[in-house]
Design goal:
Elements (H helix, E strand, L loop, with lengths): L2 H18 L6 H5 L29 E4 L5 E3 L6 H9 L3 E4 L5 E3 L4 E3 L5 H7 L5 H6 L7 E2 L5 E2 L5 E2 L6 H10 L3 H8 L16 H14 L8 E2 L2 H10 L12 H15 L10 H6 L1 E10 L6 H5 L9 E7 L2 E4 L17 E3 H5 L3 E9 L4 E10 L3 E7 L1 E3 L4 E3 L3 E3 L5 E2 L6 H7 L4 E11 L6 E8 L4 E6 L2 E5 L1 H4 L4 E8 L3
Parallel strand pairs: 8-9, 12-16, 13-19
Antiparallel strand pairs: 1-2, 1-3, 3-4, 4-5, 6-7, 10-11, 10-15, 14-15, 16-25, 17-18, 20-21, 21-22, 21-25, 22-23, 23-24
Length: 485
């Protein structure tokens, strides 16, 4: 029982040590620190949770720049102080204030040679730098000598979070979303109710994007550890990094959660999420008479119950249904993997094709008509069907063009006229599933706009790939960008 107040007193003491020190003390020593050459940039990793490695507290945490570990406080008897005396490590960085200190002497170190460490911990982008991202073809060199392209870096797989990684990699290529989150001031003034933790999701996503696009990173990969912890916390453990989930479920939840955390409403321009991905469709629904009804019940088809109902519906992605796989083998007793054209799948949304939907009690006939296309169109190709016993995967290959995909072909003439021919999209992100439904893995293909080079990303593995190879894969989720010209 006595441990609680004692610990509290200790924290207060550490914080008071932080505040009581005069800023101008030891000015001469601040500039000439003899231990700067002991800093080891190879071990510095700011991707993980900022908590003390001994007390596990988040308050007043310092990173040791010699061994990379985190410790609390810098006053006498604190964990950082003890570490500096016991191990002879002297240079520390406050992870909150971004100030450098030398312990145990406890003076501030001011040296411009440390700015690169500060930038890795908290990359900052100006408007001009963000504009240059779409034209920059310069590679970045990590401390170990490996080369990488900013924005095209691997994400660490902690255990089973590849389903998150592929979504985060593709969203990082959506330009308006990226540009918005790279500048923290865009969302720094969003007011949330007291005690609301959902804004943590926004901050962590911003931090992750800034690290992915950091041209001066120390290493050629990023660990999404803090981002995923915010996901686990805010999704109430629905999504975890120790258990595989479906990327479309995660993406749908993630986009809606970001929209809500940014105080988004039902208005199309209320958040950057809706501005980028929100489209609109009209759904025509007609109830079907039950197949086992007698003749008397079938006669009354003109009643109000069987009239066609029209509803307006917004969407963040379109669900495309694959044709069922053939049950029988061909004449050579081989199962040929069927192929289908992307435009065949999109015909579901032309306002004329009807599809039957069965519920437990009733059957409906539905038609879908797109009334407004978003700047970025997400397609979800439904590969998995669940029945009572198991999940089944449809291996049908979808043939799709990578460039100049005209979505105007599925619009009605009235809606198409409104766009004046600007309905051409090109693919910027493609997610695919390998293996069986239970034990499969996910990969992503992303387009690097400045070089027009495609890259395949599977966690930490990043390799360039020909666009012709992308079309041969079992596409699962695709993101298309509306062409400006």
């Amino acid at each position: 029982m006595s441990e609680g107040p004692q610990k509290k007193r200790k924290n207060d003491e550490e914080n008071s040590t932080e505040l009581s020190e005069p800023p101008s003390k030891n000015t001469k020593m601040q500039i000439q620190c003899p231990y700067l050459d002991t800093i080891n940039r190879h071990v510095l990793d700011f991707d993980f949770e900022k908590l003390c490695s001994v007390s596990l507290t988040r308050i007043n945490v310092y990173a040791c720049l010699v061994c990379g570990k985190y410790f609390q406080g810098r006053g006498t008897n604190t964990h950082a102080y003890t570490h500096s005396v016991a191990d002879g490590h002297h240079v520390f960085l406050n992870l909150n204030t971004l100030k450098f200190y030398c312990l145990p002497d406890n003076y501030e170190v001011i040296d411009s040679s440390l700015n690169d460490i500060k930038y890795v911990l908290n990359p900052i982008f100006t408007m001009e730098q963000i504009k240059q991202l779409d034209y920059n073809t310069k590679m970045s060199r990590a401390i170990d000598g490996s080369m990488s392209m900013p924005g095209i870096v691997g994400l660490n797989n902690i255990k089973a979070n590849d389903y998150c990684n592929v979504i985060l990699q593709c969203l990082a290529q959506v330009r308006p979303l990226r540009n918005y989150f790279l500048r923290e001031e865009n969302y720094a003034n969003v007011k949330r109710p007291p005690g609301d933790s959902s804004f943590l999701l926004v901050q962590r996503f911003g931090e992750l994007l800034r690290k992915l696009w950091n041209p001066r990173a120390f290493k050629a990969h990023v660990s999404p550890h803090e981002m995923l912890q915010a996901v686990v916390l805010w999704s109430k453990k629905r999504f975890q990094f120790i258990k595989q989930s479906d990327p479309i479920d995660f993406m749908s939840w993630f986009l809606n959660s970001l929209h809500m955390a940014l105080n988004g409403t039902k208005k199309p321009d209320s958040s950057i999420i809706y501005k980028s991905f929100l489209g609109h469709m009209r759904i025509y629904t007609r109830k079907l008479p039950p197949p086992d009804a007698d003749d008397a019940a079938k006669v009354d088809l003109n009643s109000e119950e069987y009239n066609e109902m029209i509803t307006e519906s917004p969407f963040l992605y379109l669900t495309c249904d694959l044709p069922p796989t053939p049950l029988f083998t061909d004449e050579f007793r081989e199962n040929i993997i069927p192929q289908v054209n992307l435009y065949q799948l999109l015909s579901k949304f032309n306002g004329q094709t009807s599809k039957e939907y069965k519920t437990y009690k009733e059957n409906f006939l539905k038609r879908f008509e797109i009334t407004q296309l978003p700047p970025y169109l997400i397609l979800y190709i439904k590969r998995f069907t669940k029945n009572t016993f198991f999940v089944e995967k449809n291996p049908t290959v979808v043939n799709f063009p990578v460039k100049n995909v005209d979505f105007g072909d599925i619009l009605t003439p009235e809606v198409k006229a409104k766009y004046k021919g600007k309905t051409t999209y090109e693919l910027v992100g493609n997610i695919l599933h390998d293996g069986t439904p239970e034990k499969g893995t996910y990969r992503a293909h992303v387009l690097h706009k400045p070089t027009q080079q495609w890259y395949e990303m599977q966690d930490l593995h990043v390799t360039s790939i020909l666009p012709q190879m992308i079309t041969l894969t079992e596409a699962y989720i695709q993101i298309y960008e509306l062409k400006d010209d």
